[in-house]
Structure to design on (1193 residues):
C-alpha cells in the first residue's frame, strides 16, 4: 500500500542521506553558523548563570498559563524574525532578477536564488508568519489574559494547555529543521494541489510543511477547546456574560472559529498525507480525484483562520482605546455582536479564494455578497472605536499609538478588501501582488495590535513598563517601512504583477521593486530600535516599576492583581460587580481593600509529560517526513504509553495553605518601589456600566 | 491593467472605479473623523469636552450599523451585475456588442511550463505565442496537462484557472491592435516565472496572412509530439514554436488522458540543482531538434 | 464592601483552581470533552463532504463503485455489534450510578468484547474488498470510502483501548472522581462513534443498496 518513491532509502535513515544536508549552499551554511553561534552563546550563558534548573523547573515543565503564554510569545518572536528574514531575501531576489539581462549568481539564471529555492522561501515566509508567528503570539496573549480577565486561577485544563504549547513548538521546530536537513515545500503557504502531489513534489519539502502544519493545527484545536471551556466554566462570581471584558469576548469568538475549523484543516492535510504516502486519489487530477476538494477543505479553515488571528487583535484594540480615552468602550453590545458576527460570517466566505475557478455566476455572486458582509461587523468596529475616542481624553502613549494606527490599516485593508470581494475586480487582481499587499495590510493591523498589546500588558506580566522613547522611534520607522514597501506593491498589483515570481520578466517594474527594498531596509533598521527599547527597558526596570494598574486608567479585572502577577493570580477570587470592574472599584473606593481572610488555593502541579509529548511528536513527524518507519513507530507507541501513564498519575495537583498565601502577599506588598502599589486615578471619576 | 484594450477588461475597470468610488465615500469621511477626534480630544491641548460616562447612543448605533449595511448592499448589487456582465461562459457584455464575424475558437493547454494554443478552425497550433484578430470575439477552451495555472492577459481579460482533467471557458475581444503580455498567474512549479506568452492583436487581414504563414510550418502537432512539448520545460529563453497541422481531438485527448491518471512528473534533479536541470533540458531540446 | 469570596466545595467534587462559585471537576471536564467531540464531528463532516464530492460514478475511474463495495447487509450486522456494545456500556453506567463497582467492570468488559466482534466483522469485510481488488489507491471514490471506514474503525480501536485502561483503573483505583469523569467521557465518546455509525450506515451502506 505504501507508495514507492524513486531514490535511495535505508531502513535506518529512510530517505535521509548526507546529500540532503545543504552544506554546499553558502546562504544556508551562513545561517547555520549564525544559529549555531547563537545557540552556543545561549547555552553558555545559561550554564554560566546556572539557570538550567530554573528553566527546567519553572518554565519547561510549567503548566502556569502565564508562563505558557510567554513561551508561546517567545516562539512567535523567534519565528517572526525567521519569517522576516525570508521577506528580506524575497525582496532582494525580485529586485535583482528583473528582466532578461539581469545577472545570475550561485547556480541561478537570474538573481541569487534558484526558482526552487525562492519558492521554498515564500512558502516558508507565509507558513511561518501565519501559523508560527501570528498564531502563537495571539494564542500566547489570550493564554495570559483570558484567565486574568475573568478572575480564574488558571486555564480549565492547565496540562492540556502545556500539551498545546509543545505541539506548536514541535511544529515550529520541524519548520526550522527543514532549513538545514532537506528542504521545505515550494507550493505556497496554503499549498497548491496537484503541485503538492508526489509527481510534482517528489522531495521531502511538502512532507515537512504538511506535518508542521498538522502539529500546529492539533495544538491550536486543543488550545481552542481549553480557552472556550475556561471562559464558560472558570469565570469569577459576578462575571456574567454581560460583564465579560471585550478582549475575552473576542477570544471566545476566535476560539469558536478555531474549534470548528482547525479540524477541517487537519482533515485536508491528512488526506494529502494519504495521497503522498498511500497513493490514494483525493487531490490528484486523474483517477477520480478532485483537486478542488483540497481548495474547499483548506479554505474552509483558511479564511476563518484569518479571523481567528484578527479577532484577538480587535479585542486588544478594544481594550487599549478605552484606557487611553479615559472612558468606556462605545457600543459594548454592538462590539460583542460584531465579534460573534465576524466569527459566524467567516464560515461562509471561503470560496472567494478561488473566484477565478470559473464557477457559475450565481455561486460567485453568493460568495461575493457574503464576503462583503464581513465589512458590516468590521465597519461597526471601526465606528465604535472612533466614537470611543469621541468625547474622550486621549493620551497617546505607546500602546495607544499602535492601536490607533491600526485603525488606519483597517481602513486601507477594508477598502482593498472590498475591491477584492467585488468578484470582477478579483478576476483582475486575484493572484497579483495587489492581493498580497491587501492581506499584508490586514496582517500588519494584527502586528500593530500585538505591539500595542505587548506594550500595554507588559507591565502586568513583568512588573515594569517598556521604555517609550526608543519604542516611539521603532513605531515611526516601522510605519515608514510599511508605507515604502506596500505602496509600490499596490501599484505593481495594478500593473499586473503576479505573486511568487522568482524572476520578473519586465524591467519596467524595476524601480518600484527597488523602492520596496528600501522599505525592507527601513524595517530592518526599525528592528534595531525594538531591540534597543527592550534592552533599555530591562536595564531601567527598577525605575519603571508598575503598580497594580500601570496606566492608571485601566478598566478591567486583570489590573486588580499585582504586577507581575503571582502564580496563583488572585490571592482571593474577586467578586465582580460591573462591566469595567477596576473602574467601578476605583469609583467606589474599594480598590485597595485587603481581604479579611485568605483561603487555601488549589493549584495544578508542574509536569514534564507535555514536553515529552511535544518532543515525541517532533520525532514522529520527522520519522514520517524521511520515511524512517522505526522512528515513527517508536515515537507513536511512546506517545500512547505516556498518555496512559499520565492517566494513572494521582498526584496532579496540590493545595497552598492560606497562611502561605498571606505571607507571599505581604512580601509582595512590602517590596520597596518608587511608586505606590495602588495608583490613583488622574482626573475625573471613571465611568462603568453595571452590565447584565 | 489600468490601460484596458478589450471589451471585458474595459467593463472590469469600469466596475473597479465604481467600487473604489463608493468605498472612498465612506472611508475618507471616517478617516477624517478619526483624525479630527484624535486631535480634538487629546489630553494635552485638545479642546474637546471629556464625558467619562458616554458609551452608548441609540441614534449613533443605528448609524454605526446602518452605514456599513447600506454600503455593502449597494456594492453587492453592482458586484452581482458585474459578475454576470463578464461571466466567462456567457458574458452579457459581449452578447450586447454586435459582431459581423463569428467567433474564433482557440483551445489552450498549459503544460509544465509552457502554453499550447490550438486553432481548431485553422488547423494550426502555436506554443507560447497567441495571435488574435482585432474586433472578433475569441472563445477559449482551456485545460492543463499537469497542474493548475491561471490564464491572464492583464490588458485584455482577467484571470481564469486552467485545471487538469477539467475544461473551462473564457472569452475576450480585443478592441485595438497591439502586443500585450500574457502569463500564468497561478504558481505551478519551478518554471512558473518564465511562463509568459506574448499576445498579438492584429487586423483581420494580418491574421489571415499569419495563419497562412503558420500553415506552411514544417512541424505537426500529433499526440506524441504533444507528449514531447509537455515534458517539463523551463522556457527561460522565451522560445516560440509553430505547428502547421494538429491531430484532431488533441484537446479532448489531453483532458481524457489526464483524467485517466497521466502525469508529467517533475524530475528529482530539478528539486536539487537548477543549473544541472537546465543543462539537461538544453541537451534534450537539441536532441529533439535533430 | 466585601471583596472576598470563598472557594466553595461543591457538592459533587473538590474545588478546582478556578475556585469561585462551585465549578466542579466533573462538569468542567465533561464540557471540554463535549467541545472535543464537536471538533471530531467536524472532522467526520469534512470526511463526509469529501465522500460526497468523490462519490460520483466518474470518481470511481472505471473501478468498483458504490454497489460493488457498500454491502448494506453486512453493515446491518455490524450495527448490531456496535449498538450491543453501546448498550453494554450503558448498563455499566447504570451500575456506576448505584456505585456498583463489579457491575461497572462487567458492563465495560462486555462492551469491550462486543466491540472486538464489530472489529472482526468490519475487518473481514474490508479484507474481502481488498482481495476483490477494491483498494483505496484504485480511485478517488474508493479513497474517500475507505478513509471514512478506517476513520470510524480508528474510533472503535481507541474506544477499546480506553475501555481496557478504564477496566484496570476501576479495578485498581476504584470509583474516584478522576475515574468517574473518565468513565462519563468514555460514555460520550462511545455514543458519539455510534451516532457517526448511523451516518456511515445511511450515506455509505444504504446508498449502496439504493444506487
Amino acid at each position: 500500500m505504501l507508495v514507492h518513491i524513486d531514490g535511495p532509502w535505508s531502513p535506518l535513515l529512510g530517505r535521509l542521506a548526507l546529500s540532503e544536508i545543504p552544506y554546499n549552499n553558502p546562504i544556508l551554511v551562513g545561517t547555520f553558523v549564525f544559529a549555531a553561534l547563537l545557540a552556543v552563546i545561549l547555552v553558555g550563558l545559561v550554564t554560566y548563570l546556572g539557570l538550567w534548573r530554573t528553566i527546567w523547573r519553572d518554565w519547561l515543565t510549567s503548566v502556569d498559563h502565564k508562563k505558557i503564554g510567554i513561551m508561546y510569545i517567545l516562539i512567535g518572536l523567534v519565528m517572526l524574525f525567521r519569517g522576516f528574514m525570508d521577506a528580506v531575501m524575497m525582496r532582494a531576489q525580485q529586485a535583482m532578477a528583473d528582466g532578461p539581462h539581469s545577472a545570475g549568481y550561485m547556480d541561478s539564471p537570474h538573481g541569487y536564488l534558484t526558482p526552487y529555492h525562492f519558492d521554498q522561501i515564500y512558502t516558508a515566509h507565509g507558513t511561518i508568519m501565519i501559523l508560527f508567528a501570528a498564531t502563537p503570539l495571539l494564542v500566547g496573549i489570550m493564554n495570559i489574559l483570558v484567565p486574568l480577565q475573568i478572575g480564574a486561577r488558571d486555564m480549565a485544563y492547565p496540562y492540556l494547555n502545556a500539551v498545546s504549547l509543545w505541539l506548536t513548538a514541535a511544529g515550529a521546530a520541524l519548520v526550522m529543521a527543514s532549513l538545514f536537513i532537506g528542504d521545505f515545500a515550494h507550493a505556497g503557504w496554503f499549498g497548491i494541489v496537484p503541485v503538492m502531489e508526489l509527481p510534482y513534489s517528489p522531495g521531502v519539502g511538502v512532507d515537512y510543511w504538511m506535518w508542521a502544519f498538522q502539529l500546529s493545527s492539533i495544538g491550536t484545536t486543543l488550545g481552542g477547546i481549553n480557552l472556550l471551556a475556561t471562559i464558560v466554566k472558570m469565570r469569577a462570581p459576578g462575571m456574567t456574560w454581560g460583564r465579560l471584558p471585550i478582549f475575552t469576548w473576542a477570544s471566545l469568538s476566535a476560539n469558536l472559529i478555531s474549534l470548528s475549523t482547525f479540524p477541517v484543516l487537519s482533515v485536508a492535510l491528512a488526506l494529502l498525507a494519504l495521497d503522498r504516502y498511500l497513493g490514494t486519489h483525493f487531490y490528484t487530477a486523474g483517477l477520480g480525484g478532485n483537486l478542488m476538494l483540497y481548495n474547499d477543505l483548506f479554505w474552509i479553515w483558511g479564511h476563518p483562520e484569518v479571523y481567528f488571528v484578527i479577532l484577538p487583535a480587535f479585542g486588544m484594540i478594544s481594550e487599549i482605546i478605552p484606557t487611553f480615552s479615559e472612558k468606556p468602550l462605545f457600543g459594548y453590545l454592538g462590539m460583542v455582536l460584531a465579534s460573534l458576527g465576524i466569527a459566524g460570517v467567516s464560515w461562509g466566505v471561503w470560496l472567494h479564494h478561488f473566484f477565478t475557478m470559473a464557477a457559475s455566476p450565481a455561486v460567485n455572486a453568493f460568495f461575493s455578497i457574503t464576503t462583503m458582509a464581513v465589512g458590516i461587523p468590521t465597519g461597526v468596529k471601526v465606528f465604535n472605536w472612533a466614537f470611543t475616542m469621541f468625547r474622550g481624553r486621549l493620551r497617546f502613549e505607546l500602546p495607544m499609538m499602535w492601536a490607533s494606527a491600526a485603525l488606519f490599516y483597517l481602513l486601507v485593508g477594508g477598502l482593498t478588501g472590498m475591491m477584492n470581494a467585488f468578484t470582477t475586480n478579483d478576476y483582475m487582481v486575484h493572484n497579483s501582488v495587489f492581493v498580497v499587499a491587501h492581506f499584508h495590510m490586514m496582517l500588519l493591523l494584527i502586528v500593530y495590535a500585538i505591539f500595542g498589546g505587548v506594550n500595554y500588558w507588559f507591565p502586568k506580566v513583568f512588573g515594569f513598563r517598556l521604555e517609550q522613547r526608543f519604542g516611539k522611534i521603532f513605531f515611526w520607522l516601522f510605519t515608514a517601512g510599511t508605507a515604502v514597501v506596500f505602496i509600490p506593491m499596490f501599484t505593481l498589483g495594478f500593473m499586473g504583477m503576479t505573486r511568487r515570481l522568482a524572476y520578473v520578466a519586465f524591467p519596467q517594474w524595476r524601480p518600484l521593486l527597488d523602492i520596496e527594498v528600501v522599505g525592507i531596509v527601513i524595517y530592518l533598521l526599525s528592528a534595531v530600535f525594538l531591540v534597543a527599547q527592550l534592552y533599555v527597558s530591562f536595564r531601567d526596570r527598577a525605575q519603571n516599576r508598575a503598580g497594580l494598574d500601570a496606566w492608571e486608567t485601566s478598566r478591567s479585572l486583570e489590573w486588580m492583581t499585582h504586577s507581575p502577577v503571582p502564580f496563583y493570580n488572585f490571592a482571593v477570587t474577586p467578586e465582580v460587580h460591573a462591566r469595567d470592574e477596576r473602574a467601578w472599584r476605583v469609583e467606589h473606593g474599594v480598590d485597595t481593600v485587603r481581604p479579611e481572610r485568605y483561603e487555601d488555593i488549589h493549584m495544578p502541579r508542574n509536569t514534564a509529560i507535555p514536553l515529552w509529548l511535544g518532543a515525541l511528536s517532533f520525532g514522529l513527524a520527522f520519522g514520517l517526513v524521511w520515511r524512517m518507519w522505526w522512528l515513527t513507530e517508536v515515537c507513536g507507541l511512546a506517545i500512547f504509553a505516556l498518555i496512559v501513564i499520565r492517566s494513572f498519575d494521582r498526584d496532579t495537583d496540590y493545595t497552598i495553605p492560606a497562611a502561605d498565601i498571606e505571607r507571599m502577599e505581604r512580601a509582595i506588598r512590602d517590596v520597596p518601589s518608587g511608586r505606590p502599589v495602588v495608583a490613583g486615578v488622574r482626573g475625573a471619576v471613571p465611568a462603568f456600566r453595571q452590565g447584565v | 491593467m489600468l490601460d484596458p484594450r478589450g471589451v471585458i477588461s474595459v467593463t472590469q475597470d469600469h466596475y473597479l472605479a465604481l467600487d473604489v468610488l463608493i468605498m472612498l465615500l465612506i472611508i475618507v469621511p471616517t478617516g477624517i473623523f478619526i483624525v479630527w477626534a484624535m486631535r480634538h480630544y487629546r489630553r494635552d491641548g485638545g479642546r474637546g469636552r471629556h464625558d467619562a460616562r458616554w458609551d452608548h447612543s441609540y441614534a449613533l448605533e443605528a448609524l454605526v450599523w446602518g452605514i456599513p449595511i447600506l454600503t455593502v448592499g449597494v456594492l453587492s448589487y453592482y458586484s452581482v451585475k458585474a459578475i454576470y456582465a463578464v461571466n466567462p461562459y456567457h458574458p452579457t457584455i459581449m452578447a450586447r456588442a454586435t459582431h459581423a464575424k463569428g467567433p474564433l475558437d482557440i483551445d489552450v493547454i498549459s503544460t509544465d511550463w509552457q502554453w499550447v494554443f490550438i486553432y481548431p478552425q485553422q488547423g494550426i497550433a502555436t506554443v507560447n505565442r497567441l495571435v488574435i484578430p482585432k474586433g472578433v470575439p475569441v472563445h477559449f477552451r482551456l485545460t492543463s496537462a499537469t497542474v493548475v495555472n491561471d490564464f491572464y492577459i492583464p490588458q485584455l481579460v482577467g484571470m481564469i484557472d486552467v485545471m487538469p482533467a477539467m475544461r473551462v471557458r473564457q472569452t475576450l475581444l480585443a478592441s485595438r491592435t497591439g502586443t500585450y503580455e500574457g502569463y500564468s498567474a497561478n504558481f505551478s512549479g519551478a518554471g512558473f516565472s518564465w511562463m509568459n506568452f506574448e499576445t498579438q492583436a492584429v487586423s483581420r487581414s494580418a491574421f489571415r496572412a499569419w495563419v497562412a504563414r503558420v500553415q506552411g510550418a514544417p512541424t505537426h502537432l500529433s499526440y506524441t509530439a504533444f507528449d514531447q512539448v509537455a515534458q517539463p520545460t523551463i522556457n527561460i529563453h522565451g522560445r516560440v514554436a509553430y505547428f502547421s497541422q494538429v491531430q484532431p481531438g488533441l484537446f479532448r485527448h489531453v483532458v481524457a488522458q489526464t483524467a485517466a491518471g497521466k502525469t508529467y512528473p517533475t524530475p528529482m534533479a530539478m528539486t536539487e540543482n537548477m543549473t544541472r536541470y537546465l543543462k539537461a533540458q538544453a541537451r534534450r531540446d537539441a536532441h529533439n531538434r535533430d | 464592601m466585601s471583596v472576598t469570596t470563598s472557594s466553595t466545595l461543591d457538592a459533587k467534587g473538590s474545588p478546582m483552581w478556578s475556585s469561585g462559585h462551585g465549578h466542579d471537576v466533573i462538569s468542567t471536564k465533561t464540557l471540554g470533552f463535549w467541545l472535543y467531540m464537536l471538533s471530531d464531528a467536524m472532522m467526520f463532516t469534512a470526511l463526509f463532504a469529501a465522500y460526497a464530492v468523490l462519490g460520483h460514478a466518474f470518481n470511481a475511474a472505471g473501478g468498483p463503485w458504490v454497489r460493488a463495495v457498500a454491502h448494506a447487509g453486512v453493515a446491518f450486522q455490524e450495527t448490531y455489534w456496535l449498538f450491543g456494545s453501546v448498550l453494554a456500556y450503558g448498563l455499566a453506567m447504570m451500575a456506576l450510578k448505584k456505585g456498583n463497582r463489579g457491575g461497572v467492570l462487567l458492563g465495560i468488559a462486555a462492551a469491550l468484547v462486543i466491540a472486538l466482534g464489530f472489529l472482526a466483522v468490519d475487518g473481514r469485510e474490508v479484507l474481502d474488498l481488498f482481495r476483490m481488488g477494491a483498494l483505496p489507491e484504485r480511485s478517488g471514490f474508493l479513497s474517500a470510502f475507505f478513509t471514512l471506514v478506517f476513520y470510524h474503525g480508528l474510533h472503535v480501536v481507541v474506544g477499546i483501548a480506553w475501555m481496557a485502561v478504564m477496566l484496570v483503573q476501576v479495578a485498581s483505583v476504584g470509583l474516584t472522581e478522576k475515574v468517574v469523569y473518565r468513565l462519563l467521557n468514555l460514555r460520550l465518546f462511545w455514543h458519539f462513534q455510534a451516532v457517526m455509525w448511523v451516518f456511515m450506515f445511511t450515506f455509505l451502506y444504504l446508498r449502496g443498496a439504493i444506487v
Summary: Residues 177-210 of chain C form the longest helix (34 residues). Chain C touches chain A through 56 residues (CB under 8 Å). Residues 25-210 of chain C form a domain with the Four Helix Bundle (Hemerythrin (Met), subunit A) fold (CATH 1.20.120.80). Residues 1-22 of chain C have pLDDT under 50 and may be disordered.
